[in-house]
Amino acid sequence: MSCSRRHFIAGMGAVIFMTGPVNRTLAQTMSINGIRYGMVYDETRCIGCTACMDACREVNKVPEGVSRLNIIRSGPTGEFPEAKYQFYRHSCQHCDNPPCVDVCPTGASYKDAATGIVDVNPDRCVGCQYCIAACPYRVRFIHPVRKTADKCNFCRDTNLAQGKLPACVESCPTKALTFGNLDDPNSEIVKLIENRTTYRAKVHLGTEPKMYRIPSKHGEIKG
Amino acid sequence: MSSAFHFESLVWDWPIAIYLFLIGVSAGMTTIAVFLKRRVLVDGASRDGIIKATAIIAPLAVIVGLVILIFHLTRPWTFWHLMIFYSPTSVMSMGVMLFQVYMLVLLAWLAVLFRQEIASFLEQRFKAFRWINGIISVLARFERVLEPLMIFLAVALGAYTGFLLSALKTYPMLNNPVLPVLFLFSGISSGAAAAVLFGITWFKQPIDSPSVHFVHQIEKPVVLFELFLLLALFVGLFFGGGQREAAAIAAIGGGFWSNVFWFGVIGLGILLPLIMSMVCSKRVQHSKSYMIAVACMGLSGILLLRFFILYAGQMTVA
Ligand code: SF4
Ligand code: SF4
């Protein structure tokens, strides 16, 4: 009997090896406490002041040369004085099905089961950069000081740990950012998603991003 | 895009291409050597030049490849994390496990193969280590199991490097089921080239011996299949539309990496040796310098293929 069990385990190993990263551990899909944080970025409200970028750098001690958050301006569409710019938030999407976590060989990249936040444990990271290549949203980088993979973690270890909202949300002068629990039907974020038209970037890849966007009224949506 | 070797979407650079090449050579050589021993040599395999070349190059290529990989980490001295923390969803993590088993089985298989040589060597020089012979004779009892296991592991290793890249959803050209098969077969063809090259130069294996003939025989069908796989890869991308199509055009429709592909991979690595085998006389083809030249072309072609796939593959993002 022990022999057949060994065969089973070996067989499973072979199956996992041959099929690649398709199966996921329970902890990655399960939401404990019913908390699954997400964010809405309202492109119609964003004025591109980059206060969020500065606040993120300050609160999370992000060194020069790299960034966890970028506001990308495109446009203008139309002629002055009617010229309109479009803004796009470039940061971790906190995918529900994160390819960066699937590929990480050491478990350094993980999805926190209690909050749904995708985070990096720098002590375990070897810096293979597999996650950087695997993230289709191109938001990861090697932290120049720690030499480990890094990216936005919704201020999980800074503001959130102190009971505050993420730094970008706190600092936004136009309230373009809404952070909250996607699993709570009464939360502000869920109501917003129910009542406005939103889109998410690259949904066709099956990554299930938790960054929702309210499209700007001008120009084309390029998810 | 700034240059062929530095562009925004590039994450893994040239050391990875060399690593992919070396692993392919090792996996290919081992696969061929096991078949060679079973089909052609049967006994006395340890006196064959091609087997001797495999005994040295196959483990060495893996060791050098892994050292390159370790120093490519941003934190090389934490590499041991890879060996204690495993993640079943990560192709790389499963690969680390595979490497360990592959090396163990390869060393065991070689020890059994060279058991007489090892025994007489220990007898003459290191009498204190004679207990090693005992271990080898225990291993020798499993020779019948070791060989198929060795082939399985070598094939898995050859395909592994392809799976490593095909797991990347970011890049449509890499996120492709053809890649593991392509890497396996190009690895086998590089293994055959390395076996002939080192077998006849370092180990003075006569070029008209049955073993050189055997390796030579597999080369052509493998190369033709490789050509077909490349066709399948790009036709699949073209018909895939969207970013897949864009990736294919960016890769082979012009520019630096497109030239590497058409002139290096296809021209030098595949077509030129095929044409030479058609136009050169039998006498020329059976000369040592011809064989060395063809083996070098094959190896360069596969090395360039690894560079091409890695760089061109990362040019286009999904
Ligand atoms: S956006 Fe990138 S880094 Fe963030 S969870 Fe998704 S794959 Fe991972
Ligand atoms: S760089 Fe670090 S976090 Fe990213 S995959 Fe490698 S070990 Fe994991």
Short description:
The complex is a heterodimer of chains A (223) and B (318). Chain A has 223 residues and is of the alpha+beta class.
List its salient traits.
heterodimer; A: 223 residues; alpha+beta; Alpha-Beta Plaits; two-stranded antiparallel sheet; 7 helices; 9 strands; 18% strand; B: 318 residues; mainly alpha; 13 helices; 0% strand; binds iron/sulfur cluster; transmembrane (chain B); membrane (chain B); NrfD (chain B); NrfD-like (chain B); Cytochrome c nitrite reductase subunit NrfD (chain B)
Topology, element by element:
The complex is a heterodimer of chains A (223) and B (318).
Chain A: H1 2-19, H2 26-29, E1 37-42, H3 51-59, E2 70-77, E3 84-90, H4 99-103, E4 109-111, E5 118-120, H5 130-134, E6 141-142, E7 149-150, H6 167-171, E8 177-181, H7 188-195, E9 211-214
Parallel strand pairs in A: 1-9
Antiparallel strand pairs in A: 1-8, 2-3, 4-5, 6-7
Chain B: H1 14-41, H2 49-72, H3 81-84, H4 91-113, H5 115-124, H6 131-140, H7 143-166, H8 178-201, H9 210-240, H10 242-252, H11 256-279, H12 282-285, H13 288-313
Bound molecules: iron/sulfur cluster (2 copies).
Which kinds of small molecule does this entry bind, naming each only once? Answer: iron/sulfur cluster
CATH class of chain A: Alpha Beta
Terminal CA distance of chain B reads: 16 Å
Radius of gyration of chain B: 21 Å
Per DSSP, what share of the residues of chain A sits in E-state strands of 2 or more residues?
A: 15-25%
- Range of helix content of chain A: 10-25%
CATH topology of chain B: Formate dehydrogenase/DMSO reductase fold
Low-confidence stretches of chain A: 1-29
Number of beta strands of chain A: 9
CATH homology superfamily name of chain B: Formate dehydrogenase/DMSO reductase domain
Give the overall shape of chain B, derived from the CA principal axes: globular
The largest β sheet of chain A comes out as:
3 strands, mixed
Largest contact between protein chains? A-B, 39 and 37 residues
Q: Give the fraction of residues assigned to helices of chain B.
A: over 70%
Question: Which regions of chain B are unreliable across 5 or more consecutive residues at pLDDT < 50?
Answer: none
Q: Which sequence of strands runs across the widest sheet of chain A? A: 8-1-9
> Helical segment tally of chain B?
13
- How many beta strands in the DSSP annotation of chain B? 0
Write the element-wise H/E pattern of chain B from the N-terminal end onward. Answer: HHHHHHHHHHHHH
